[in-house]
Give the backbone structure.
Amino acid sequence: MDVDNSSNSVNTAQLAQWSVVAVSLEGTSHQKRNLPCQDAHFWKVVGDRILVAGVADGAGSVSLSEVGSLLAVKTAVKGIASKIAESSIPDGDEGWKVLLNSGLEDALVAIQTEAESRQVNVRELSTTLLIVVATPDIVAAIQVGDGAIVVANQQGTAIALTAPPIEESLDLATFLTSPNGIDSAQICLWEGKPAQLAMFSDGLQMLALQMPQGVAHAPFFAPLFKFIAEAKDLDAAHQELTGFLRSPRVCDRTDDDLTLLLASLA
């Protein structure tokens, strides 16, 4: 079984072992200015036990950020999933690093090619990129730019595998297309049995993380992980998750685009 799901709106799937719900929504500031959602997400399940998922957030200051974010996340996830399907998962730290970095490299090449075809500077497709590969025994994560990836262990403890870099201004923000983009990537290999995981763009990081430490905020994740673990009707679940992201609890604290991907291992 090889299943994928992508959009810049809502995604759900329930498979033999993984249940996934993902939502990307334009922020209230984008709604007011009639701008598209510049976030994107994409995921695939290889077999019934290996989840490859990604989240990307296009830079708000460039003209084709929504193109760059979707292209980057789809290319990276597809490339990593294809490599896993062909040769299984790596058996050592170095192998994982090579696999994860290959996703970033494939995404950057795709963006550069797209920029050339449109005859624009590659900067116009600037985007962050977060990728996770999750199995029943290990979670491997790589991240360029803002946002974070959080895993819950079997005891329900939320653990941040990555964290947004501390940057003083947008001029210092790091994107996949930055000169040091791939070299700046955070990589984390977490060996354990995951129960749930979450990925999100920077629109949620002030709610989801204790900053500036980047520690997972347990009261934020506990109900979300319970929600995805207990979800039976994933169509209803995506409606509920969308309602949560549109609620005053969230929108009163952030006007940015919002992406949240939740997954639970049965």
